[in-house]
Amino acid sequence: MKSLAIILNVLLVSISSFAATTVHNVSLDEAVKLAKENSEDLELSIQAIENNESIYREVLGTALPQLTFDATWQKYFMKPVFFGNAVDLNYQLSSTLSVSQTLWAFGRVGAAIDAAKAGKQLGELDKQLTEDQIEYLARAAYYSALFSKKNLEIANQSLASAKQNLSILQQKFSGGRPPQSDLVRLQADVASRIPQVKTAELNYKQAKWSLAQVIGVSLEEEVNLTTKFDQAFKVLAYDKLKEKLNDKVPSIQALDQSIAYAAESAKVYNAADLPTITAVAAYSYAGAGSDPLTSEDLRSSSYAGVNISWNIWDGGSTRAKAQQARINKKIAELTKKKQLEGLELKLAQTWKTYQTLVESHDSAKKAVQLAERSFKIAQKRFRTGQTSLTEMNSTDLALTQARIGLAQNIFAIHDTLAQLANILSLNPGELL
Question: Which end of the chain has fewer CB atoms at under 10 Å, N or C?
Fold first, then answer.
């Protein structure tokens, strides 16, 4: 009875542990979606866009009529003194409604609005670039997990082959004692491959943890990869890829907007040394008296006119700011040229890497097929005593290396294609 209770407790603990582990099936597209949804960097970009929108509305407001109202009520406890004379005045009320509208500022207001627009577009482009980077990181993490999974599969295949070789030796000498050196060598071979499997298991688990962190899944959850590596690949034409590296690419658009922002900022500071003409008008309703005020004590007045303000000299600070803005524009232009050259070089290098990997894919796949055939032949020959253990082990090692080489080739092709897509701000499928 006591033994039955112990068994039931063990079963309950096992069931609870199993229930606590949630399996999360994740496809590649879902991983990209989750990575964007759980990215703090993307949220920061969205907040920056909202801030730039507020700045734009603030600047736009300077081009619209400015309406202000001011009202003051005063009770004098001592008679006020005006020009040395005490006035019999106890109460005073004044209220003024003022309106002003900038008529002409020599392009300063318009340039400020255009600069704010450029700032808004820069924020939106930064968000797009952030999304592209997040998508690439999600794809890279997913591909890394798939690669680690394949390496674990290869390690298990290698261990199974070693055990099979040992079994062949034992069957070969089932009626007698096998050679001690061959037996020890194969047993050592099996023992040495067990840690390799354990290491591959650890690498696979860590790769899935890295992916879980990127997509915002708890580390306690089991991530199950539902998307597999593609097995067929197309050669890409460099000329067509280079055509896509145009002004529609967000990274290049961002450089253009940086130049536009610097140019408009320079216009703002250049116009700051010129007059500003403003239309002004006001309506006042005020009055004062020794007794509490009534409507009979209050009078209305109004005026309209034009105001001219001119920053004739401020020690040269405005001109210095204008010079800084012009320098910033030149820096932005040089930065665009430099980064465009860098993007073209990166595109060419990444494309060449992709082409080389694709061209070598068939050879890597053929190498695995030949290595599998060679290993099977070696096993068969060893079983019938036509070859040595050394030759069989050599073909076994060659098969494992060929499988690893093919897995590395497929992983590198996927990762390089994702890099190309990231450079051009496209989905990898749009490149094929």
Answer: N
- Fill in the amino acid letter for 224: N
pTM score above 0.90: no
Higher pLDDT, 401 or 80: 401
Give yes or no for residue 214 having a pLDDT over 50. yes
Distances (CA, A) of 287 to 86, 293, 294: 18, 8, 9
Asked if residue 120 is part of any domain, the answer here is: yes
Residue 301 falls inside a structural domain = no
Of the candidates 277, 278, 279, 275, the one whose C-alpha atom is nearest the C-alpha of residue 312 is 275
Decide the pairing of beta strands 222-225 and 23-26.
parallel
Task: Give the 3-state secondary structure of 140-208.
Answer: HHHHHHHHHHHHHHHHHHHHHHHHHHHHHHHHHCCCCCCCHHHHHHHHHHHHHHHHHHHHHHHHHHHHH
User: Hey, what are 329's tokens?
Assistant: 């524009």
Residue 80 has pLDDT above 70, yes or no: yes
Total domains in the chain come to: 1
Question: Does the structure show a pLDDT above 60 at 64?
Answer: yes
The CATH number for 150's domain is 1.20.1600.10
Q: How far is it, in rounded angstroms, from Cα 207 to Cα 30?
A: 17
The Cα–Cα gap between 341 and 345 comes to 6
Range of the domain at 191: 22-64+105-275+310-431
Closest CA to 34 of 206, 210, 217: 217
- At 379-430, the pLDDT tens digits run 999 888 888 888 888 999 999 999 999 999 999 999 999 999 999 999 988 8
Provide the CB-side half-sphere exposure for 72 (13 A, CA). 9
In angstroms, the first-to-last Cα distance of the chain is 67
The angle, 0 to 180 degrees and rounded to 10, between the axes of the packed helices 317-383 and 108-172 is: 10
Above pLDDT 90, what percent of the chain? Answer: 66
